[in-house]
Every structure is written in structure tokens, then in C-alpha cells.
Amino acid sequence: MKNIRLLLLLLGVLTTSAALTTAEDNNCLTCHQDFEDEETGPSHLIVRDIHIQKGLGCADCHGGGPSLEDMDEVRESPDWRGVPSHLEVPDFCARCHGSASYMHEHNPSLPTDQLTKYRTSIHGQRLFVNKDTKVANCISCHGAYQIGSARTPHSTTHPLNLAPTCANCHADAEYMADYDIPTDQFEKYRQSVHGKALLERKDLGAPVCNDCHGNHGAAPPGVASLSFVCGNCHAIEAELFNASPHRTAFEENDFPMCETCHSNHLIEQPFDKMLGAEEPALCINCHAEDDGTGGLATAAAMSQAVEKLATAYDDARTSLEDVIAKGMMTTDEEFRLKEVQQLLVATRRQTHALAADTVDSIAEAGYQKANEVRTNSAALVDEYYFRRKGLGLATLFITILVVALWVYIRRIEK
Amino acid sequence: MAASSSSSGGLSSQLYQWLDERFKLDTVVEYVKGKVVPVHSHSLFYYFGGISLFLFIVQVLTGILLLMYYRPGADSAFESVRFIISNVSFGWLIRSLHSWSANLMVFAVFIHMFSVYFTSAYRKPRELTWLSGMALLGLTMAFGFSGYLLPWNELAFFATRVGTGMAGAMPGLGEQVLIIMRGGEEVTGATIGRFFALHVAILPGTTVLVLSAHLLFLQRQGMSEPLDWANKPESDKRYRKFFPNFLLRDLLVWLIVLNILAVLAVLFPDGIGAVHWPLGAKADPFAPPPAVIRPEWYFMFTFQALKMLPAHVWLIEGELFGIGVFTIGGLIWALVPYLNRKSAKGQPSKLFTAFGVFVLTFVIVMTALGYILE
User: Fold this and answer.
1) Domain-by-domain residue ranges, chain B?
2) What is the spatial distance between Cα B218 and Cα B133, in angstroms, rounded to a whole number?
3) Nearest CB to B244 within list A388, A391, A412
4) pLDDT band at residue A18, thresholds of 50, 70 and 90?
5) Do the Cβ atoms of A339 and A318 come closer than 8 Å?
6) Residues of B in contact with A412 (CB under 8 A)
7) Disulfide-capable partner of A398 in A175, B172, B259, B335 (CB 3.0 to 4.6 Å)?
């Protein structure tokens, strides 16, 4: 009994001291929350910050003792770092984010090369070399007090929020006036096939600014490296392009690889008429009949093959839809039509290699399959009417039997 | 008949004589010739037993044809059904006939049962005919439940999971029953094996035995006469010869049902409305359940009633309470020949008629609600 009382006393002491420690830890917030605005004050905003959620406190960034009660004492603390200037921010954050051993304790999966990359970026170079404090530093993109992992939806660096985050500066014509670069990137991106996928369909697989430009090392991709940037996702197209005569020709003429035909921020859904020897084909922008490359002839041949298969695919799909509407079992044909669709995609993709024969052979395989779908769909429609005719005959036969039987019953009952 | 047959001296009469010498066919023929069927305003309902029998025969025949291509198993069931529908000649028709005749059979069995109930045809001496009929109803429902899973498609998978889950909610042996039904804790390929064996061997064998007994009772006792015939003078009663008159009419009805079946099977091979069995997607235990999981229409009243019960009724869990009420209700229904003493004396019972009306209304309303509220 005596031991239990002693244990309870000890527990009481421990609990009280723990509570006091917590109160001491909150000294920064206790004072700052008193006089800061509830909507905009850092001490109020910080509760959603990932650092606070991971157990770090104000003093871990700003220094000073969290247990001190007087602000002058805080400022006089040997480790007091205060509020960094715009120029100091990258090094301020890199104290922890550049230390592999420190980050290992808190978030081992997070890289620690952000500052190194930042120094190579246009932003970093302007900041450190030109001392240009208008360029973005860490807090320009991540914020200062509501920093969240890029995986959390409220974060400014979540894929759905990233383009607007970059657009905060890059779409502001007045702010960007000194830099002589366009400010319509965000507007163009929003209308592009990538922007629509991400911002309208919420497809997180679609690329956003940092997927092409990098994030901490943000810079425009160079002309030569553009096919590698696009090739990160469009790997087969990039491989075919790099093996094609266009690769060397574009390099020699300083053309921006993929961008030459597909544009950059305003990348639209490619369409078959982009290829060919007549308007609105893009090939005529560079090639002429007599340029000695045979480019237009190749383009015309590839365009013809693609168009032939695309038309066959549409016809096959229409005929199959008719059969589906009739309620027939079409699983096999649906699979076959998928194969045609894949071959159509492969044919369109193969045009990047500029080999008309290969394009034609893939298209021909798809064309044959599309014909099979059409033929089988027609057979299924015939089968549909055959079933109805069979039903009609069976009904007629059964009706005759019923009438005959009824007459016979009436006769024997008389 | 035997004498006239023998005098004609044809091949058929010789065959008849040959059989008669060995099996005493004359006594059977004389017995059948003496059988009569009462004729009254509700005579139409006599045909529903025959319709159920006919549809059962269609089930057996189409089932055998399906069996030639069906392959039970999580990796083959769905594929084999798809093969039957799309590649086997008239496979689509056989599956459609099988599914439509199953649904029509349940419908015919329900009409048969309620008509027997409301005319008190279960009364002494036909208690065993009623009981064997109740057993056949249970077997028919079990056929439906076990057959639903066999295509191993998405809808069947989740409906079976819910259905077996309900059996698992039974107090005491529930968990054991669930494991026996599923062949484990979850609905898997092992469940198909069990349901398949049940559907093509255990249930048909048992049904043939019980059905034989049911038909034997019927043949020995004849058709039940209406209650008010007890006080009717013999001269006012009308009868029809069983052979050939009633049998030919039965055949005529069978032909009409066959035609209805053919029309439904050809025009709606995947069913229509609430009676629908599209093959759809293959069952995927890891996929989210479809928005609407519903059992077949003849289980809907039970499903809906259990769904509408609150979480707890007094101190009992809602679902458990519902299963208890259905069990007691089913027992009362099955034992009605022994509970309704008035009918045994040839008198109508307002209480049991009211009970029958309540049950029928409950089944119709709950089924309708099941589809309206889903």
C-alpha cells in the first residue's frame, strides 16, 4: 500500500513537470499569439506547418530559448538567428535541409541537395551573383509558416497548386518587367493538353512546371536537352526522334527539338493533319518539294497511312457500336478494336522516326484488324436478324401446335 | 383398351402386350383412366404445378448443355461462360433459356404455393404434399442462390458475399455455416467449387427425390377440391378426366410457356429490368463493390426487410432479429396444415387467410421497395 502511494506521488510529480515543460516550450507562441492577427499572424498560421507537426518549434529555425519569458533575453541569446533577409533565406533553410545527418533523423527520404541545385538555377544565380532580391527563394514558393509536403493538397507545391505558385511571379507582367521574358506561360499551360489534364481532370500524372524546368534547379531546358526533357514521359517518341534524320538537322539549325512541332507551354492535342504535304500540316513550314530531302514525300506517305488506319478504326468502331446497341455479345470484337486502337497509336508514334515503310507496315496490320472487326460486326448483325427470324418460325410452329391441340381437345370433349 | 389394342394386332399392341405380361400395365391404365380433376372457377391454378415441372425439365436440359462447356474455378468460370455466350453455337440461347426458365420457375412455384395456400389445398390428407412442396420451394431458392455465383462476375461475387454474410449472422452456428458455404472465410474459387457441386449434383439429386415424392402423393390423392364443395350436391360438381383431357391441356399450357420462354430468351438474352444477368466484368475480390448490390428478385423482400431494420430491436441485433422473425414465419408457413384446424374440418379460416394476405402483401411491398429505394 505504501509502495502504491509512493508510486502515485512520483507519477504526480512527473506529470506536473511535463506540463510545465510544455508550457515553457510554448513561450514563443504564448506571447506572439497575443498580439498577432489571427488570420495572418505567423504564430497562428504555423499550426498547419509540417515542421510544427513533426515536433520542431520556433526556436529550431529562429534560435533563442523557447523557455525564456522576456523578448530582450531571447534576442540576447547566443544562438538567436532572428528573421533572415531575402538573401539569407536559402542558407537559413539549408542549415537543416542541407544536412544529411540531421534530415536523416526527421525525414530520411527528403533530398539534401536543394541549396546546391538552387545555386545552379536562374533564381539562385541572380540572387547570389546579382544580389537580386526579387527572384524567388525558398519561401517564395514554399511559404514561410504554412509549409507542407508536396504530397499534401494544401501545400503550395502540390502538383495542383504548383503552376499557380510559379504564376504568382511569372504571370505578373509588372513584376517581371525587368527580366524580358514572357508572362503568358501559365495561361498557355492552362490551355495545353498537359494543363487540362492536371487542372481540369485532376490527373496528377500530368506534368507541371517543375517536371520540365526542375524545381530547386529551375532553368529553361536547353535546345539540345529538350528531347530528353519530353522523353522523360514520352520515352518511345523521344527514342524514335533521336534516331531520325530530324535530330541532326534540328541540331544543325538550332531548332528546339520537340518544341519545333509541338510548341512548349501551349502544347495542344496532336492531330493527324499536323503531318502531310499540304495545309495545315506543319511539315511545309520547313520543307519544300524541291528541297532535296524528300521530306514532303515521306510526310505525305506517312499521313496517308495514318489517315487510312484512322478512318478504318472509326468505321470499325461505328459498326461495333451498332452491334452493341443490338445487345449482342461483342467482347472479342471489343478486344480486337482495342488492338486496332493500339496499332493506331503505334502508327502515329512511329511517324517520329520518319520511316514511311515502317509506318505503313504497322498501319497495314491495324487496317487488317479493323477490317476483321467490321466483317465480324456485320456477321453479328446478320446473326441478330437470324435469331429473330428463327424466333418467328418457332413461334409460328408452336402456335400451329397449340391451335391443333386446342381443336383436338375440343373435339374429344364433345 | 388392352383388348382393343390386342385385337388390332399391330406392332404397338404387341409391344403393349409384352409389357403388360411383365408389368401388369392394365392396372395402371385402369387407374389413370379413373382419375378426374375438379372443374371450378379456380381450376386455372392447377396448371402452375405442371408449369413449374416443365420449367424444371428445361432447367435440367439446358443445364446439361451448359455443363459441357462450363469450367468451375476462379480462373476459368468467367472465361468459360463468356466462351459459351460468344463462341459456342447457340450457347447464348442455352444460357438465356436457363436463366429465364430459372426465374419463371421461381415465379410459377410462388403462384403454385400461394394458390394452394389460399384454397387450403394443404389440408388433411395432403399435409405431406404441402411439406414436400415447401422443401421443393427451398430447393428452388437454393438452386437460384448457388447458380448466381457460377459465372464469377462482379455482381454475383458481391451479392454472394452479402448473401453468405447473412447466413453467417445466424446465432450459434453462423460462423461455421459461413465457412462451410464459402469454403473459407472469404468468397473465393473454393466457394465456386462448393456452389457448383451443390448446383449440379446435390440439389438436382435431392430435388428429383422430393419431386418424385410430391408427384406420387399427388397421383395417389388426386387434386384437392375447393372447401365449399364439401356441402355441394354431387350433381353440382364438375370433373374433367385426367387422361387424356387434363394432360392434353397441360401440354397445351407447356407449349405456350415454351413460346413465352423462347420470346424472352431471344429478345432479352441478358434479361430485362429487375430480372437481369449481364455477364459484365469478371469478379475481382480487391475491386470496390459496385454502387448497387442486389440479390435476385425472389430474395429481395428478405434483403430489403433486413436492410430496413434498425441496428437493434430491443436488445437483439437488428439483422439477427430479422432472421429470427423470418425463421419463425417460415416455420408457421410450413406447418400450416397442422396449425389450421378449421381447414382440416373443411371450414375456411379467416385468421389463416388474413395471415396469407399479410405474407403476400409483405413480399410484394418489400420487393417493390427494394427496387424503388436502391
Assistant:
1) 33-145+155-277+290-372
2) 11
3) A412
4) very low
5) no
6) 244-245, 248
7) B259
| CB–CB contact B259 A399 (8 Å) | yes
B154-200: per-residue pLDDT in tens? 989 999 998 898 888 777 888 999 999 999 999 999 999 999 999 99
Report pTM: 0.72
- Grid cell, residue A116, equals 546546391
ipTM of the modeled complex: 0.85
Burial profile B219-236: b = 16 or more Cβ within 10 angstroms, e = fewer: eeeebbbbbeeeeeeeee
The domains found in chain A, sorted by start residue, are 221-269 (no CATH), 295-413 (1.20.140)
**Which residue of A329, A336, A397 is the best one to mutate when testing the B interface, meaning the one whose CB has the most B CBs within 10 A?**
A329
Residue A216: closest CA among A139, A115, A131, A91: A115
Whether residue A91 is predicted with pLDDT greater than 50 in this model: the reply is yes
> What's the CA gap between A281 and A264, in Å, rounded?
18
Kindly state the average pLDDT of the residues A374-399.
96
Neighbours of A125 (CB within 10 A): 15
Integer Cα distance of A123 and A133 in angstroms:
10
Strand B275-276 and strand B271-272: the pairing is: antiparallel
Which chain A residues are Cβ-neighbours of B258 within 8 angstroms? 398
- Residues 249-278 on B with a CB inside 8 Å of A are 249, 251-252, 255-256, 258-259, 262-263, 266-270
Q: Is B251's CB within 8 Å of A332's CB?
A: no
Q: Pick from A371, A396, A390, A245: which is nearest to A320 by CA?
A: A371
Q: Does domain B33-145+155-277+290-372 have CATH number 3.20.20.70?
A: no
CB-based contacts of A200-207 (< 8 A; 24+ apart in sequence): A202/A160, A204/A159, A204/A160, A207/A233
- Contacting residues of A for B263, CB less than 8 Å apart: 391, 395
Contact B266 A412 (CB under 8 A): no
* Cα–Cα dist A360/B264, whole Å: 48
